[in-house]
Design goal:
The chain is mainly alpha-helical. It has a domain of 190 residues: Preprotein translocase SecY subunit (Orthogonal Bundle). It is built from 18 helices and 5 strands. Strands 4-1-5 form a 3-stranded antiparallel beta sheet. A two-stranded antiparallel sheet has the order 2-3. The longest helix has 36 residues. The mean pLDDT is 77.
Length: 429
């Protein structure tokens, strides 16, 4: 490990890349502490501590919502826009054909995603302001005029677009996903403050309880690593080919097709958060409606989603459902079976073509069940721990752990791949 780190630092372009990415993350953390004028952060923290939905939004904004900064939405609108574009490429034939055009088509889709991000950021920024107005009143936002509200929304949209740009230029460095690294940086930046708060409330008579928390945290991290790296290898054999009178491939090549237990990553959790935030935000606009039954229904929806039990159940179901949904979007067994058949590959005991597609779909649907249930449990783990211990001070942040572990593993793999590539180039020079 030490040798790898020293080798990483000796390679000039990799060293410059790491310094550049670190500088971008520092800029992000500076932006997260630039508040919008007219806001009382102390009052906002009280609202966040009592609302699990806003707590989730604060998590994915990297703590920007807690400070009511210009990046309070984080990269949420951009992620939502990306999901919308992925769904549209499955529905709209023109976008599907554009996606198959290679790099040029992908660049056009990325541009459309940026366009969609702007109205989504405006809508989400306005909804968040209205929701906070209803939750905390004037002690948080103060008496904002129309001009001040427009200025605040403009600053919020500008902050979101700036984070989107930072994420994209980090992507170009190829040492990790830029958007994921921004969320990762926000979670890690909040860790010292969280530890300090927990140490401040430590009761020496509850050392056994804290030991159990630490044990559960270690088990959770081990489980996240195990499931994130878990995969089922489907054996694949490529028959020997003849080019002219020469045989290529000898007696055939045996390899495998890896099917990951968690093919969707953290996308289902992000998508579930986006959906579960919508009903209470919309209901908040109708709480003061002049029609009694509409106002009563809006209050019921708002109070229902603030109920811990209902919130946990709905969150779990949405995460499981979106795991299957997103896997169906990114995993195409028919296309894989077609590619295998074109390349002369087959799964032993399974006929090429449609039977191979059915087999891959059958295996994928069963291994995804474990991954979906795992993601669901990870998502509601803080709620479960708080309900079991009646403690709001200590909680195992399952979603945070999942994001941190996934981002670290992905970045380490990409850095190792670049080191191996340079070793390969040096060997043949």
């Amino acid at each position: 490990m030490i040798e790898r780190l020293s080798q990483l630092w000796r390679v000039r372009d990799l060293r410059n890349t790491l310094i550049f990415v670190f500088a971008m993350l520092v800029i992000f953390r500076i932006l997260a502490h630039i508040p919008i004028p007219g806001v009382d952060p102390s009052g906002l923290k009280q609202v966040l501590s009592g609302n699990p939905l806003l707590g989730l939004l604060n998590l994915f904004s990297g703590g920007g919502l807690q400070n009511f900064s210009i990046v309070m939405l984080g990269v949420g609108p951009y992620i939502t826009a990306s999901i919308i574009m992925q769904l549209l490429t499955m529905i709209v034939p023109r976008l599907e054909a554009m996606q198959k055009e290679g790099e040029q088509g992908q660049n056009r889709i990325n541009q459309y995603t940026r366009y969609i991000t702007v109205p989504l950021a405006i809508l989400q920024g306005f909804s968040t302001l209205a929701f906070l107005n209803s939750q905390g009143g004037a002690q948080i936002l103060g008496a904002l005029t129309v001009f001040q509200k427009v200025t605040a929304i403009a600053a919020i949209v500008g902050g979101t677009m700036l984070l989107m740009w930072i994420g994209e230029i980090i992507n170009e460095r190829k040492i990790g996903n830029g958007i994921s690294l921004l969320i990762f940086a926000g979670i890690v930046a909040q860790l010292p403050q969280s530890v300090q708060q927990n140490l401040a409330v430590i009761d020496k008579t509850q050392i056994f309880t804290y030991a159990i928390y630490a044990l559960i945290a270690v088990i959770t991290i081990a489980g996240v690593v195990f499931v994130t790296e878990g995969q089922r290898n489907i054996p694949v054999t490529y028959a020997k080919r003849l080019i002219g009178t020469q045989s290529v491939g000898g007696a055939g090549v045996n390899t495998h097709l890896p099917l990951r237990v968690n093919q969707a990553g953290v996308i289902p959790i992000i998508f579930a958060v986006s959906i579960i935030l919508v009903p209470p935000l919309i209901a908040q606009f109708f709480v003061t409606n002049g029609i009694p039954w509409v106002a009563h229904m809006a209050v019921w929806v708002r109070d229902t989603f603030q109920n811990q039990a209902f919130y946990g159940l709905a969150y779990f179901v949405l995460v499981v459902a979106f795991t299957y949904f997103y896997t169906a979007v990114v995993f195409q067994p028919n296309q894989i079976a077609e590619n295998l058949q074109k390349q002369g590959g087959f799964i032993p005991g399974i006929r090429p073509g449609q039977p191979t597609a059915h087999y891959l779909s059958f295996v994928s649907s069963r291994i995804i069940l474990g991954g979906a249930l795992f993601l669901g449990v990870i998502a509601v783990l803080p709620t479960i721990m708080q309900s079991a211990t009646n403690s709001q001070n200590l909680a195992i942040g399952g979603t945070s752990l999942l994001i941190v572990v996934s981002v670290v593993l992905e970045s380490v793999k990409q850095v190792q791949a670049q080191l191996v590539m340079r070793d390969y180039e040096a060997f043949y020079k």
